[in-house]
Amino acid sequence: MVVLGGGIAGLAAADQLSRAGLRVLVIERSAQAGGLHRASHIGPYTFDAGSIFYEQGARLFDLAPGLRDLCPTVARVQRRIAPDGTVRHYPFEPREWLDQPLPDMVRTIADLAWSRLTVRRDGTLDALCRKRLGRRLFESSGLASYIARFHHVPPHEIDESFFFHRMAFVARATRPGGLARMALRTLTAASPRPRPLLHVRPREGFAPIFARIVAHLAARGVEFRFGEELFALHRKDRFFLLCTTAGTLRAEAVVSTIALDSLHKVMFGTGSGLVSLDMTTLFVSAASLDPRLGNVLYNFHRAGWWKRATIHSRIYPEPRTGREFLSVEATIPKQGRHDPGAAFADFQRHMADLGLAQGLALEGHERVRNCYPLYTPGSNANIRQVLDRIAGAGIVLAGRQGRFEYLPTSSGVIRRVAEELDAARHLTALSGRSP
Ligand SMILES: Cc1cc2nc3c(=O)[nH]c(=O)nc-3n(C[C@H](O)[C@H](O)[C@H](O)COP(=O)(O)OP(=O)(O)OC[C@H]3O[C@@H](n4cnc5c(N)ncnc54)[C@H](O)[C@@H]3O)c2cc1C
Questions:
Q1: Is the CB of 244 under 6 A from ligand 1?
Q2: Distance from residue 225's CA to the centre of ligand 1 (Å)
Q3: For residue 99, how far is its CA from the centre of ligand 1 (angstroms)?
Q4: Is 367 in contact with 279 (CB distance < 8 Å)?
Q5: Residue 435's pLDDT is what?
Q6: Residues 136 and 231 occupy one common structural domain
């Protein structure tokens, strides 16, 4: 049995299949496991391509013994730059309502109530957000500009499913019970609830975590081939023939966790038509950053291309350098270019205009491929067709990349992998055979 991809989904699949007694071979094109969870070491700094937080019970920690102990805990202090340029709690603090002049508050509540009654869902994110929040709040909160910045298309060109996948806080908070709780907390001026500490990757990067998972799975018989990329896959009778950069191999079953569009290309020679957005991640150091920025900062302001920054120096203090350091993320528009110079100039200008940072320097950058699936209205039918076409050829698809699913946490990825493998019951019939 071959598992394509050695990211979190591939490792979780290898774990589950090897536990079921199957012989598993993992093919991964990078030199190491972990996929998106990877760090870059530049001078005295360690940066990350994505984010680095894991909840106490994260399923990742079940993939090998002792992983939780490798990961220190921190308080995640999330802030956002609001449309007026002030630094606020993220996602939203009910007491902020009280900062508005009374007539504005009344207008916002009236708009919200009216929108609930009159706006009809039409399958787009714009209609659903307006229905749940009212247009006034949707725009004045900066959420509409954040969504447009994230996708590079306006919310009426995004499928409403994004609301449930990515905007869980807004989805919960705008249910009738959520609104009632928020009103109560506003009126009682309750303080923000303390959040549980989160684990973060080890100071030196992700290598200790993934080395331990790979060693643990290898001891159970899982074979790994790193630095090997799949470029063609065909079915031949009962078998699959896989052509990789190291040669051809035969497998009775294939579980794919690589990007759905890449798999479509290697199987059928053409793209699937599904669009994922890449991301430019800038690795930045700073002489100083405003102390109010917390350690994770979101951009809800009208200006600036960047959407989120993780301030590593506040998670892993490095007093010897005397500088702050952070990863800054900006999604790349469909058919756009990875242009770190322009993205950095924009970030630098934006932070200077707001007076939030001084002495910024670009230390490095990375293009992170296939970061976010783009769900345009009606794209669900297209996704279903692609999944059916590939699954019809007998391949089991799993994971965030493998199924083109927006899964924000590794625990969500691992849970979905388990569900997909449980559903593919034919795999367990292969138990005990060679790859
Ligand atoms: C920006 C960002 C930040 C995130 N931060 C967090 C976080 O802080 N905490 C959290 O719990 N979750 C986080 N997630 C969510 C989730 O945990 C990750 O997206 C996770 O890495 C998804 O795992 P995956 O295995 O599906 O995909 P990937 O990590 O992308 O792994 C796919 C693997 O397949 C390999 N591959 C691709 N093509 C081929 C080929 N042709 N041949 C062989 N190998 C191939 C790739 O090299 C890669 O290793 C984040 C997601 C994003 C996008």
A1: no
A2: 18
A3: 40
A4: yes
A5: 47
A6: no
